[in-house]
């Protein structure tokens, strides 16, 4: 079944996303919460803030954004830390932190299942969570993962299998009004010419 | 054996465009341009970039003369002076109680802001501090008014009137604060036989109408007499009607609750929660409210 689906996706040129869905406001304790599903990958996001922050961490002119990413099994490791940094930089570019100085905004992400394109699913869940919490944002943003297979064809929203066979995996965070790129991260190697032909 | 109804999850149908609506709202998401006219003052939920007014939260645009602001669709309760709130005591601290009111920080009820039994006016002594738990314990529900707001957003409450105080027997419904309409009074005695307190923080308290108001009590004695079955049925029906209105995202105020109650009379109380009955009742309520306006 999974193999058939991949063949259909490859035949379509790989430029279609898996069915995705989102649910907001499903947790009662956090100020904002969202669950984002991309195919079989799902991430749950919970947002707390703006709340009080301990003295040493507070910034006098803006809010401090903290991101915690919890994997499905095991303790958070180095990969989770690096993804947390990427998410934090993306969210800081978008959240209007100057409106809430000396406060902390905490974003907690829990990976429910991972079937490829995990980072873009986390980015999407973070955006939906920020929206649900009513925090001031300069724009909405979304995340998309592209995989370059050994032939040079581009596959959007790859599954785990496609990610393993790919030569390079690129993740982008794109903002809403002018489709500008907020963040990119690359795993693997690809030439610079192939780069700019991504998000149209 | 009681009969059970089971339903499988189905795709929710959006409220159709043919349903009567009272005026179109301008809905925006963060990053959407509200207007390029520079004559407007910007309010909450907006920011200015390159002479354009852009929304920063997702919600409906509200315009009052020259002030444009965006009210978020769903937010925690933000206290404002003069609001009526219904809250639950979570902690008893040294000279105050901590009250949970569906806001980001717990609200504070100072010992000096409550009426002592007997209506006395005197300085609070050490005995009063020790006897705090006799007045209000953890888990009690109270109705109060917002006295002031601290700089971090926490709200300070007071119950310095006989109509506020500990709540006795009734039903609590928790809804989103944005669905409670701001009115002159939030204590309503409905003609159907029950009373309702619409807290601005989204906590709604339905209780049987008190026959006589106890003047000396000062709001701390609880009436624990058994409530008759007819009153209980009215209260259950009101609670189901409020849940139906909330599911269909209608604003809650005394007229809408009353119309919904009257529209639900042909159905059994437990049927009101079924989706198709809910839609029918709320459609009728919406129609009657629009007829009332224009």
UniProtKB/TrEMBL annotation, chain A:
UniProtKB keywords: Cytoplasm, DNA-binding, Exosome, Nucleus, Phosphoprotein, rRNA processing
GO cellular component entries: cytoplasmic exosome (RNase complex); nuclear exosome (RNase complex); nucleolus
Family statement: Belongs to the RNase PH family.
GO biological process assignments: nuclear mRNA surveillance; poly(A)-dependent snoRNA 3'-end processing; rRNA catabolic process; rRNA processing; U4 snRNA 3'-end processing
GO molecular function list: DNA binding; RNA binding
Main location: cytoplasm
Protein name: Exosome complex component RRP46
Alphabetical list of InterPro entries matching this protein: ExoRNase_PH_dom1, ExoRNase_PH_dom2, ExoRNase_PH_dom2_sf, PNPase/RNase_PH_dom_sf, Ribosomal_Su5_D2-typ_SF, RNase_PH
Domain named Exoribonuclease phosphorolytic: residues: 17-136, 140-189
TrEMBL record, chain B:
Compartments reported by the entry: Cytoplasm; Nucleus, Nucleolus
SUPFAM superfamilies registered for this protein in UniProt: Eukaryotic type KH-domain (KH-domain type I), Nucleic acid-binding proteins, Ribosomal L27 protein-like
Keyword Phosphoprotein: yes
GO CC field: cytoplasmic exosome (RNase complex); nuclear exosome (RNase complex); nucleolus
Matching Pfam families: ECR1_N, KH_6, S1_RRP4
Residue ranges occupied by any Exosome complex component N-terminal domain in the UniProt entry: 27-64
Subunit-structure text: Component of the RNA exosome core complex (Exo-9), composed of EXOSC1, EXOSC2, EXOSC3, EXOSC4, EXOSC5, EXOSC6, EXOSC7, EXOSC8 and EXOSC9; within the complex interacts with EXOSC4 and EXOSC7. The catalytically inactive RNA exosome core complex (Exo-9) associates with the catalytic subunit EXOSC10/RRP6. Exo-9 may associate with DIS3 to form the nucleolar exosome complex, or DIS3L to form the cytoplasmic exosome complex. Exo-9 is formed by a hexameric base ring consisting of the heterodimers EXOSC4-EXOSC9, EXOSC5-EXOSC8 and EXOSC6-EXOSC7, and a cap ring consisting of EXOSC1, EXOSC2 and EXOSC3.
Family: Belongs to the RRP4 family.
Name of the protein this chain belongs to: Exosome complex component RRP4
Species this chain originates from: Falco tinnunculus (Common kestrel)
Lineage, uppermost ranks: Eukaryota, Metazoa, Chordata, Craniata, Vertebrata
């Amino acid at each position: 079944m999974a193999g058939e689906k991949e063949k259909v996706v490859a035949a379509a040129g790989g430029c279609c996303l898996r069915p995705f869905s989102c649910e907001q406001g499903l947790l009662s304790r956090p100020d904002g919460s969202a669950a984002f599903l991309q195919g079989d990958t799902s991430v749950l996001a919970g947002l707390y803030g703006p709340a009080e922050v301990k003295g040493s961490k507070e910034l006098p002119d803006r809010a401090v954004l903290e991101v915690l990413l919890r994997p499905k099994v095991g303790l958070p490791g180095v990969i989770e830390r690096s993804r947390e940094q990427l998410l934090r930089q993306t969210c800081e570019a978008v959240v209007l932190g100057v409106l809430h100085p000396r406060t902390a905004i905490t974003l907690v992400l829990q990976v429910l299942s991972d079937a490829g394109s995990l980072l873009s699913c986390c980015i999407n869940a973070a955006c939906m969570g920020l929206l649900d919490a009513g925090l001031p944002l300069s724009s909405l943003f979304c995340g998309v993962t592209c995989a370059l297979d050994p032939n040079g064809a581009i596959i959007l929203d790859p599954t785990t299998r496609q990610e393993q066979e790919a030569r390079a995996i690129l993740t982008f965070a794109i903002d809403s009004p002018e489709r500008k790129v907020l963040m990119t991260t690359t795993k693997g190697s690809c030439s610079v010419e192939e780069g700019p032909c991504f998000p149209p | 054996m009681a009969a059970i109804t089971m339903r499988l999850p189905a795709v929710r149908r959006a409220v159709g465009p043919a349903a009567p609506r009272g005026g179109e709202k301008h809905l925006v998401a963060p990053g959407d341009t509200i207007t390029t006219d520079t004559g407007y003052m910007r309010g909450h939920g907006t920011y200015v970039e390159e002479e354009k007014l852009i929304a920063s939260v997702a919600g409906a645009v509200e315009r009052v003369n020259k002030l444009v602001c965006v009210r978020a669709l769903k937010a925690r309760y933000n206290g404002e002076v003069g609001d009526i709130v219904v809250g639950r005591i979570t902690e008893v601290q040294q000279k105050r109680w901590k009250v949970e009111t569906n806001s980001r920080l717990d609200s504070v009820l100072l010992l000096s802001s409550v009426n002592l039994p007997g209506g006395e006016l005197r300085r609070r002594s050490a005995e009063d501090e020790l006897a705090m738990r006799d007045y209000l314990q953890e888990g009690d529900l109270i109705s109060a008014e917002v006295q002031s707001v601290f700089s971090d957003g926490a709200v300070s409450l007071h119950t310095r009137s006989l109509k506020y105080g500990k709540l006795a027997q009734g039903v609590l419904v928790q809804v989103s604060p944005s669905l409670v309409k701001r009115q002159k009074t939030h204590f309503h005695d409905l003609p159907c036989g029950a009373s309702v307190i619409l807290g601005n923080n989204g906590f709604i308290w339905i209780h049987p109408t008190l026959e006589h108001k106890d003047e000396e009590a000062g709001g701390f004695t609880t009436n624990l007499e058994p409530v008759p079955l007819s009153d209980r049925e009215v209260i259950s029906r009101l609670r189901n009607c409020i849940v139906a209105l909330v599911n269909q995202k209608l604003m809650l105020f005394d007229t809408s609750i009353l119309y919904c109650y009257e529209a639900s009379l042909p159905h059994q109380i437990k049927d009101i929660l079924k989706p198709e009955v809910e839609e029918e009742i709320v459609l009728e309520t919406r129609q009657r409210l629009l007829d009332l306006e224009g």
